Automatic annotation (TrEMBL):
Pfam families: CBS (PF00571). The gene is yhcV. The keyword Protease does not apply. This is CBS domain-containing protein YhcV. Residues 132-144 have a biased composition (Polar residues). Residues 9-67, 74-131 form the CBS domain. SUPFAM superfamilies: CBS-domain pair. It comes from the Bacteria. Keywords: CBS domain. Residues 123-144 are annotated as: Disordered.
């Protein structure tokens, strides 16, 4: 039987608000040894995601100030999310389709967990994780 995401997700997820600086976001990532953070507004509703890559390419490479608000660098549209009731196979398929390695788990607009490809790589979910990794790692456009 396939496990629900709620049983394998990481709980107590670190977040950042959309008004905090990218320097603060980077410091949280460094402290927690993670590469992405869900972005929430003042009510706790998830409004985006920010990654270490976002900070590098959308701010540092553009000469932005370290005090630039997260809202100017984050990905805010079409955030791929999981529901805690989703099963692990569905999550693996979603990750493969969207070519993402981490899924925020959202319930009623609130972040309740995070599931990573590594979370799916348990004995019971190994086939789905292997398939997802293969698809995620494939180039999105043919190489010439």
């Amino acid at each position: 039987m396939n496990q629900q995401i709620r049983n394998i997700m990481t709980q107590n997820v670190a977040t950042v608000t959309d008004t905090q600086s990218i320097q603060e976001a980077a410091a949280i990532m460094s402290q927690k040894n993670i590469g992405s953070l869900p972005v929430v507004d003042h009510t706790g509703q998830m409004v985006g995601m920010i990654t270490d890559r976002d900070i590098t390419l959308r701010s540092t490479a553009q000469g932005e100030n370290a005090q630039t608000p997260v809202s100017q660098v984050m990905t805010a549209q079409q955030i791929v999310q999981a529901d805690p009731g989703m099963d692990a196979q569905q999550a693996a398929q979603l990750m493969a389709q969207q070519q993402v390695r981490r899924l925020p788990v959202v319930e009623n607009g609130q972040i309740v967990g995070m599931v990573a490809l590594g979370d799916l790589a348990t004995d019971n979910q190994k086939d789905g994780a292997d398939q997802a990794l293969s698809t995620i790692s494939a180039p999105s456009a043919p190489q010439k």
